[in-house]
Amino acid sequence: MTGSDNAHATEDEKLGLSDDELLAHKTVYAPDLLRDQVIMVSGAAGGIGRAIVWLMARLGAHVVLVGRDQAKLDALISALTAAKLKASVHAADIRDADAVSALFDAVWKDHGRIDGLINSAGGQFPQAAIDFSVKGWNAVINTNLNGTWYMMQAAARRWRDTKRPGSIVNIVVVTTHGLYGIAHSIAARSGVMGLSRSVAVEWAPLNIRVNCVAPGSIMTEGWKVYTPEVRASAPRSNPMKRSGSPWDIAEACVYLTAGSGDFVTGETLTVDGGGQLWGETWTTGMPPYFQED
User: Fold this and answer.
1) pLDDT for residue 176
2) End-to-end distance of the chain based on CA atoms, in angstroms?
3) What percent of the chain is helix, strand and coil (3-state, nearest 5)?
4) What is the pLDDT of residues 155-176, one digit of tens each?
5) Mean pLDDT (whole number) for 64-93
6) Euclidean distance between CA atoms 46 and 73, whole angstroms
7) What DSSP string runs through 196-223?
8) pLDDT band at 12, cuts 50/70/90?
9) Backbone phi, then psi, for 226, in 5-degree steps?
10) Which residues, in sequence order, are CB contacts of 160 under 8 Å at separation 6+?
11) What distance in Å separates the CA atoms of residue 122 and residue 104, rounded to the nearest whole number?
12) Rounded mean pLDDT of 139-149?
């Protein structure tokens, strides 16, 4: 979708892809690339997570769907099953370390392994940092940082104990250019990126790779928390002057998870149309101070 096309797209078209579209979307990957692999995806029913699930299932993986909303997970697995794709559901709150441990116990009991973990669960709300409540700050940190870590550690321990290789991909945000109004998420995601670099070295002897994907302006249903004005300005945040698709992030995750990424660890793959080199995004709207001549 070009910048011009984006301006004329409907709200629904801009904010995500339907299950039918995700089933039919063209991919660069061979249809059996992930055949017989078991891939766990947290935040599976979200806009980006959903695209990752569909692509990996289409490439032959059995995808373990993880999330908090049982109804959304059930709807997704019904669509996958109707398409004759392999998946299973495990509702869990990743902010609870004991729940995460129980989740991995259940998956190991069912499958005897997982081959890859995609941490897509997370969220934030636009607000000036000076106005964050303690509850609001902790809600974002607990999901985006602590929950991601609990999932990473649980996977790594099981790979270590069973002497199996593994791959972790963490969905973060672009932190190398102006992204304002979600300072809590910047703090949490920056922590995940630093954590990933650190354990990529620590866990290399265990044959565990750890990478991140940093999406730029990707239009999903999650963008509904932002005003129409903020959404309309998003394509101007990068030199390609358009927003990306959840499919762009899904294909990046496959690259890092599959054999194509076998010699890649400790990296953050930025998928933002060059935005980190170019513009800025104010999720709360740019303050008048910065618009003055």
Assistant:
1) 64
2) 32
3) 50, 15, 35
4) 999 999 999 999 999 999 887 6
5) 96
6) 10
7) HHHHHHHTGGGTEEEEEEEE-SB--GGG
8) very low
9) -100, 155
10) 206, 208
11) 19
12) 96
Distance of alpha carbon 155 from alpha carbon 279, whole angstroms: 36
Q: Which domains does the chain have, with CATH numbers?
A: 29-212+246-268 (3.40.50.720)
Residue 13's pLDDT band, with cuts at 50, 70 and 90, is very low
Q: What is the C-alpha separation between 167 and 165, in angstroms, rounded?
A: 7
Closest residue by Cα to residue 87 from 122, 44, 47: 44
Contact 180, 281 (CB under 8 A): yes
Averaged pLDDT of the chain: 90
pLDDT at position 62:
98
Amino acid letter at 29? Y
CB 46, CB 144: distance < 8 Å: no
Distances (CA, A) of 57 to 23, 121, 190, 224, 254: 10, 18, 29, 27, 11
Would you give the distance in Å from CA 221 to the centre of its chain? Answer: 13
d(CA 233, CA 29): 32
Whole-prediction pTM: 0.91
- CA-to-CA separations, 270 to 119, 172, 216, 250, 255, in angstroms, rounded: 16, 9, 8, 13, 13
Does residue 145 sit in helix, strand or coil? helix
User: What integer pLDDT is reported at residue 293 of this predicted model?
Assistant: 63
